[in-house]
C-alpha cells in the first residue's frame, strides 16, 4: 500500500512539473527572436559614418586648438582694475576707482572689426590686418551727478576716443543732447579729455592688455563651442 502511494505521488509530481515547464516556456520568446532584438539594439546605438566623421573632425579641431595656441586662465586684474569675465558671452567688464569718490566701469567687446594698413618696409603692396575692440568707459561721481561716458576704440597699440556723453540716470530725458563728436572738437579739448582718461588708467597700455585678453578669450570660447557641438552630435 505504501509503495502504491509513493508511486502515485511521483506520477503526480512529474505531471505537475511538465505542466509548469510547458507553461513557463510558452511565455518566453524563442532564442531566435531574442538574438534578433539584441542585434537590432546594437545597430541603433552605432553612429552613422557621416556622424562619426563629424565627431572625428571636431575632436581633431579641439586637439589642434589646444596644441597650437593653448588658452590660459583669464587675468582677474590689470593695474588698479578688477576684471570680470563673462564666459560664453562676447564681452567682459572691468571696474576700478579713482581717488575717493570716483567709480570707473569699463565694458569691452571681443574683436568686432578690423582695419587694413600697409605693411612696413620698402614693399608697400601688402597689407596687415589690425583688429578692433570697442569699449565704453563710465565715470561715476556719486548720487546726484551725471555720468561721464566715453565711447572708445581700442587698437593694438593705441586708444581712440569716438564720443563723450553726459548721462543722467536720475532723470528720463526723451531726446537728450549727447554732446559733439569728439573728433570734431578742437585739438586742445581733445587733448584734455584724453588726459582725463589716461589719469584714470584708460590708456595705450590698457589697449595692449585688452587685445591679449581677447585673443585668449577668443580661443577659450572657440574650444568651448566646439566641445558643445561635439556633445550634441554624440547624443
From TrEMBL:
SUPFAM superfamilies: Mitochondrial glycoprotein MAM33-like (SSF54529). It comes from the Eukaryota. InterPro entries: MAM33, MAM33_sf. Pfam families: MAM33. GO terms for cellular component: mitochondrial matrix. This is Mitochondrial glycoprotein family protein. It comes from Hibiscus trionum.
